[in-house]
Amino acid sequence: MLKEIGFKEDQRDQKETRVLELMELMAAQDQAMAGLTERLQEQDELVGRRSKEVEEQVAKLQKELAVLEKQRQELRKGVPAQLLKRYEFIRQRRNGTAISPVSDGVCFGCHMNILPQQFIDLQKGVEIIQCPHCQRILYWQEEALEEGISQGAS
Ligand SMILES: [Zn+2]
């Protein structure tokens, strides 16, 4: 009888010990979860701040774009329709750049030499000249010390 009681008490002790162990484990988990929750909140805040920065940047760029678009519309009014059509045609095929400077006879759009006669004509500034290689509309990039030639805007 006593033996049996002793055994039962023993069992109860074991049970309590196990419950305590489990509770300790749970407490440790609670702590770990609290730590993770805190980190998660930090990351959330970071994402919130970053996305706000990005949104502000996007808004700023959209505003700049709208200004440029408006300027563009104004500038287009001064260009003959036929030339504008050609310009748009080239722009679509040349990654958005339809106009290229030429310096020393080289088109900066494709880095190829244009024809010598074209270069002469370009410097005269009388007609619209296109690069024979990339078809971009060319303008002469007058270099500062080039033979002291100074040409008025055409
Ligand atoms: Zn070219």
Measured by DSSP, the beta-strand proportion falls in 5-15%
Please state the oligomeric state of the protein chains shown. single chain
Mean pLDDT level: 88
**Shape estimate:** rod-shaped
Proportion of helical residues: 55-70%
Structure description:
With 154 residues, this protein is mainly alpha-helical. The chain has two domains: 1-78; 81-140, no CATH class. It has helices at 2-76, 81-93, 116-124; strands spanning 99-103, 106-107, 137-140. A three-stranded mixed sheet has the order 2-1-3. Mean pLDDT is 88; it is low at 144-154. Bound molecules: zinc ion (ZN). Zinc ion is lined by residues 100, 107, 109-110, 112, 131, 133-134, 136.
Question: In summary, what is this structure?
Answer:
The protein has 154 residues and is mainly alpha-helical. The protein is built from three helices and three strands.
Task: List the defining traits of the structure above.
3 helices; mainly alpha; 154 residues; disordered C terminus; 7% strand; single chain; binds zinc ion
